[in-house]
Design a protein that fits this description.
By secondary structure, this protein is an all-beta fold. Helix content is 0%, strand content 52%. It is built from no helices and 11 strands. Strands 2, 4, 5, 6, 9, 10 and 11 form a 7-stranded mixed beta sheet that branches. The protein has a 4-stranded antiparallel beta sheet with strand order 1-3-8-7, with no helix packed on it. A hairpin with a 6-residue loop joins strand 4 (32-39) and strand 5. The radius of gyration is 14 Å and the shape is globular. It starts with a strand and ends with a strand.
């Protein structure tokens, strides 16, 4: 049974940092795209960042404009990704979801429909 488990959410002041973790189990995800989406109350789920497989041991990161330069996704191994979030803003407050999906050609990391496995989400609150 495939599972994605997120951790690392919490309450942080504006300008602070958090690191989210996503650990997948149940199969090997080495050729899968893995990413993060978020959903704030009253809003639709939106793309944050993803890492897609480019062949061999090469992966490529993709970012929403709203988080470029502040967030960094890293693939620790085939089944684990981290999301380092710096310079957090109140508008980053949301439930963050980890997702995984088969690699597509061309990659479509921004589309939630590209992902078939989802975690339960972890709350990130940015407030003073």
């Amino acid at each position: 049974q495939v599972q994605l488990v997120e951790s690392g959410g919490g309450l942080v002041q504006p300008g602070g940092s958090l690191r989210l973790s996503c650990v997948a189990s149940g199969r090997t995800f080495s050729t899968y795209a893995m990413g993060w989406f978020r959903q704030a109350p009253g809003n639709e789920r939106e793309f944050v960042t993803a890492v897609t497989w480019s062949g061999g041991n090469t992966y490529y990161g993709h970012y929403a404009d709203s988080v470029k330069g502040r967030f960094t996704i890293s693939r620790v191994n085939a089944n684990t990704v981290y999301l380092q979030m710096n310079s957090l803003k109140p508008e980053d407050t949301a439930v963050y979801y980890c997702a995984a999906g088969p690699q597509q050609s061309p990659p479509r990391p921004y589309n939630a429909r590209s992902y078939i496995y989802w975690g339960q989400g972890t709350q990130v609150t940015v407030s003073s």
